Amino acid sequence: MTLTATAVGLESLLVATATFTDAQPHNVYFATSGLPSGVSVTVSWGKTNPAGHSASGTTTFTSPGPSASEGTTPGTTFTYSFPISVTVSGVTYNLFSSSPLSPFTTGASGGSTTVTASYALEATSILDVSGMGSYGGEPTLTAKLVDSGGSGVNGKSINFYTSVDGGETYVYVDSATTAKADGVDGVATREHVDLTGIDAGRYADGVKAIFEGGDGYSGSEGTGKLTVAKADAKIVVTPYDVTYDGNVHTATGTAKGVLNESLSGLDLSGTTHTAAGDYPTDPWTFTDVTGNYKDANGTVHDRIRYNWRGFFQPVDNPPTINVVQAGRAIPVKFSLSGNKGLSIFATGYPAQRIIPVSGGPEDLIPIDETVTAGASGLSYDPSVDQYIYVWKTDKAWAGTCRQLIVRLNDGIDHMATFRFTK
Length: 422
Known about the structure:
Blueprint: E1 2-8, E2 15-21, E3 26-33, E4 40-48, E5 54-62, E6 70-72, E7 77-81, E8 85-88, E9 91-99, E10 104-105, E11 112-120, E12 124-134, E13 140-147, E14 157-162, E15 171-177, E16 179-181, E17 184-190, E18 201-211, E19 220-229, E20 234-238, E21 241-243, E22 252-256, E23 266-267, E24 277-286, E25 296-305, E26 309-312, E27 321-325, E28 329-335, E29 351-355, E30 364-366, E31 377-381, E32 386-392, E33 401-407, E34 413-421
Parallel strand pairs: 3-11, 12-19, 21-25, 27-30, 27-34
Antiparallel strand pairs: 1-2, 3-6, 4-5, 4-7, 7-10, 8-9, 9-11, 12-13, 13-17, 14-15, 14-18, 16-17, 18-19, 20-22, 23-24, 24-25, 26-28, 28-32, 29-33, 31-32, 33-34
């Protein structure tokens, strides 16, 4: 305030003027941010002016303020203390920061300083965000919600989103509530998520988890990798078991995707055969061309049977038991509908084995045709389209019953039964 006084001397007619100035205070105000409006806040403060005079007190105001002013002498050291936390309707807001920091020095005369305290709910963070599954399947999304101390927070809803463009756009998927999982608190897990149309691959920031906040906690969000593994194609390969006809034969098969769509890339060329034979490990391969399915391979058991006819005389087919003198050579005759060469037997065959003596007199048929041979052997007679296998028996077999097993390289056994006499 400025006061001006004037004095007039009557005798001398002199005039004198004097001006007096009273210094203006520097006002301090209090305010808040982050609190709901209308909350009563009490601040404790203290001040010491440049002359060393001190004072202290409290100021109560309603958020967000500002409060009534607290006047100070310019250059005063001012301290204050806001409540560390404020509870409103059961929700606790924590003091996050204040500005200017306490203590501070007040400024020029006639100026003002507003001290603002910022409150926030309990800070949270979302960690360990991830999504894992296979193409066309139902992956699992997970995230962990923790408070400012790193402890997991249970019972909170987390919203999950997915992105396949590096986080440029997100699509809402579903929500899950945090709970203890495998001994860890704060874990939100959303299973059976539909990711139809999302190709296999690894997507950085492909999963976003958002906590909206509430119940005394601030909101937070986090992102993580979405991993969509390649799926298994549904492959069905059907082997063949046919009689030799001179034609080319190949296994048949299909490859289907998760949506039952037909897939290319199934190679069955390894199952192709023309010649009679047993093919127990014919290979097939599947090579994916979409990038969404695993390559695969396997085998099938294919067979092209000889067109067998036999046995012909002098050998009778079961249940007849052929009777022959041990040590004789028996001509075993059969047809394969044409000359298929002499490499028709499976490795280790023909073979014989002892069997129990059985059969009544009506089943015993003597063999009336034998040959003299130094060793067993195979030949083909084109005039009657018959193979002749000369089977050299052993005198030591007398008194036994034996079964002759003719296994061809198509894997099929043809058997005849013999009783050997002296």
